[in-house]
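Each letter names a residue; structure tokens follow underneath. Both lines appear below:
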Amino acid sequence: MRFAAVFLVLCTILLLAMSPANAASKGMKKYIVVFKDSAFKDAVEGVVKKIEESGGKVLDRFTIMPAISVELPAATRMRTFETMPEIDYVEEDQPVQAYNSNP
């Protein structure tokens, strides 16, 4: 079930987010930040504030699972966010394919 939720989130990001070429041309990278189920709204807002202080921005907030899509300067140290206690994991946003249409 968790895989299906992550898959849906990633597909939604692909449809809603700016093209990766535009982000790369600005020296920005896109990430998915997934929060632990136990993270409170105040903790999430604290992470959002740190992202904005790092020169990043929140592209989307998801309701299916506790996650946000963010864009950060390429030079940002993601380890800073990955080690925060309210964050479950961070992964670089990238295209996904539901199935291969070629036999």
Observations:
- The first helix runs from residue 2 to 16.
